[in-house]
Model the fold of this input.
Amino acid sequence: MCGIFGIVGSSEAARSAFLALQAIQHRGQDSCGIATIDRERFPFVRRLGLVAQAFAPEHLNQLPGRIAVGHVRYPTIGRGVLADAQPLFFRQPGVHLAHNGNLINYNELVGHLAEHSVHLLTHCDAEPLLCELALALQERPRGHTLDDACAALARTWERADGAYSIVAALILDGKDTLVVARDRCGVRPAVWGGRSDGAYVVASETTALDALGVEARGDVGPGEALFLREGEPPVSRVIRRDRPAPCIFEQIYFARPDSRIEGRTVYATRLALGRALAREWRQLGRRADVVIPIPDTSRPAAMALAEELGLPYREGFIKNRYSGRTFIMGDQAQREDELRLKLNPIRSEFEGRRVLLVDDSIVRGTTLARTIQLVRSQGATEVHLGIYSPPVLHPCYYGIDMSTTEELAARAFVLEPSGPLSEEHQREMERNFARRLELDSLTYLSVAGLDRTWGGPRCAACFDGRYPIPVSAERRREIEADRRLGHERRQATFRFVG
Done:
């Protein structure tokens, strides 16, 4: 999972990228980068770590120009090293490109490019995407036009299979041009907006636009490419479109609550999911004295759930504001170390009470087990857990690190899941999983409850196993093998640095 950003028509394009990337820092903490175009020069700076610490004033001074693209990265393919940081650059015809998502036919693309004597420098799947686009453009004469770029994107979309949003900066029709495009199902998000002075901004989330005072004007559509030039009306072209399937996990966990994606605020979605979980909890006849969120993502859902059930809502944990997101830490040891720093309980909110904890999801389950132990140690008489999403039973092949099949904790309690669980099987799984976690009860939101709340097309393959962009068994094996290797490399790097 990553975050993308682009701006055109600004005298301080690089500084704008620097500010906006901090607003989407939650989408990736391994590396960051900014690239610009200045009179047919294509400077870029890529760094490891967080944006605010990685970029100094001298770095921004190296990036003149009125157009910029930026990126924050958390790798789900390849490694967390500087060579894999984005944006990436291709000299001919001169393209900066950053992407968010995952290519499911990475190895096929590598082979195809090798046949054309193009050999990759990174292990990042944005590079074959960039190379395919550049090769398609090179088949056309010098002085590329917007129509040339559309044709090249169409060729690239035919070859590059997967779920991704891209932002690219290049020169078309002799003008600096910002291009933002989404995969054919719109799995990964992309939004855009504009200012009255003729500048345009694109990003993974509207929080990046808010940071710059830019009015959001909508989402880029599935399979759509939007061409933006300073002071000119946007040009929209549909490259390849299938049935929309935006990622529901963006709304559940990944996006910031103040972001607006797919026409609704993430905060409102989480409130609705909390109310839906409350209704299902009530039907089970369970009882609690207090509702406490596991911070931070679950707060809106926990508040709505408490209101629906008529229970007090309390903050039982103090979160270290300097702690990162444990879900996107590089390895399990790092996640567990970070959790010790991340949450500290307030004993008075737990002692002598039946506590209903609320969280967004359970993926690996190991950091959650420590959180439950913390609550037990504070004197709670009962510990219940409500999850405002269904069980994660299937890997994500589209760019979220829900990684390999064996890492998904809930699968251990389900026999060969092939689709949504029946209510009977879900409740049985919850009872068995609760015993493992030493909980008095565990309640997931059902897939049916999720769909009633969302009320529109979505990708929820991690819950129901229905992948809107088909992933063959061979490709699944390749992706999972790459992720295992990537995890091993990041663990080795962490051990060496630590």
Summary: Residues 264-467 form a domain with the Rossmann fold fold (CATH 3.40.50.2020).
